[in-house]
Each structure stands twice: as structure tokens, then as C-alpha cells.
Amino acid sequence: QMQLQESGPGVVMPSETLSLTCTVSGGSISKSSFYWGWIRQPPGKGLEWIGSTYYSGNAYYDPSLKGRVTISVDTSKNQFSLNVTSVTAADTAIYYCVVLTGYVDDYWGRGTLVTVSS
Amino acid sequence: QSALTQPPSASGSPGQSVTISCTGTSGGVGDNKYISWYQHHPGQAPKLIIHEVSKRPSGVPDRFSASKSGNTASLTVSGLQPEDEADYYCSSYAGGNNWVFGGGTKVTVL
Known about the structure:
The complex is a heterodimer of chains A (about 120) and B (about 110).
Chain A: E1 3-7, E2 11-12, E3 18-25, E4 36-41, E5 48-53, E6 59-61, E7 69-74, E8 79-84, E9 93-100, E10 106-108, E11 112-116
Parallel strand pairs in A: 2-11
Antiparallel strand pairs in A: 1-3, 3-8, 4-5, 4-9, 5-6, 7-8, 9-10, 9-11
Chain B: E1 9-12, E2 18-23, H1 26-30, E3 35-40, E4 47-50, E5 64-69, E6 72-77, E7 86-95, E8 98-101, E9 105-109
Parallel strand pairs in B: 1-9
Antiparallel strand pairs in B: 2-6, 3-4, 3-7, 5-6, 7-8, 7-9
């Protein structure tokens, strides 16, 4: 059973870059047909799709975040990462790394809270 | 991106049924076979309870059922139990390896 685990700083200063990493265990990023993605949930709000990438680098992002978001893969470490630039308080959220397929294959990390604050 | 609209809340007594709607545009729901439902207890990762409109993953009780009609997908929880109190989200495939979520429905077991 594949497992995902987010890691990264819990606090980020406004205008700086939010960087999170997702470590994949129980499966190989480069040997699967999955897209590796990120979802966030701001406090008191619903789930928001951020984007996803294939291991070869074909990334897709939600249009509302496009331009500030980069999702990348490090196959040597079996990890994928999220960068969000120029963060504001509106980027404060629980961030989940995920694999969504539309089928029964569906994997989520436990989530990590990132607070944008000075 | 098409938007999915859910009611903010629903409630029922133990043993009763609740139905949650998820309404979108034609491309968001009506023509889409990739409609999923998630159960989310605070502090935990969301759990997939329905995929491909009405299919239940192994281990999900058959109290959970779902369907679609036109541009509205629906999730029904029958025989409500205290542990069913949670937030429920619908999602659909939006193309280009992107997904869209509904705003979530908080289910309260009275």
C-alpha cells in the first residue's frame, strides 16, 4: 500500500516562498502511471486543487494559482515538491500531497499546516 | 474550471438518511464519469468513499450510496451512525489532469 508523507516548515513569512516535500513509500514515482498532486484546505474552508505533475515533468496547475506554483519530482529520492511564491495570509492552509486517479486508486498524505505570518 | 455546489450542511438522527447534492455544469458533472465523494473527519486525511459516480471502494459500508442525474450528483448516507458525522466533498475530473471540488457539506448526526 502506497503511503505519502508531507514535510516542510510550518511557518512562512509573507512574500516569501512556501516549499513542501512529499515522500512516497510503498511505490516508485518513476514506475507508476500516477500524477502526483497537491491539495490545500484553508482554515474553515473547503478543499482546493493546486495541481499535479507526472514523473517526467508534465505539470498542470489550477488556473487561479498558475504563475505562483511549481510542482516538481525528484525520482532519485522518490519525492515530489510544491513551491508557492509570493505567499500571503490567503495561502495559510493544510496542504495535502495526493494521488487522484478517478478510480479506486486514491492516496493522501496526512496533511501539514502551513501558516503565513511574520 | 467548472464549480461544484454543495449545501453547506445536512443533518439527521441516528438511523435516518441524509442526501447531499453536488451540482455542476454539464462538463463538471453531467458528462463526467469521474465523480468522487470523500468523507473528511477533522485532523485526518479525506477518505474516498465513492468513485466513478457510484462505486464503493472495498471496506466502505453499503450505507453509503451515490448516483447522478443530469448535472447533479448525489450521496446518500442511510442508517446514520454517530461516526458518519463529518464533512463530505464531491469532486470531478476537470480535464488536463486537474480536479475540482465542491465546497463541502457538514453532516451532523443529531
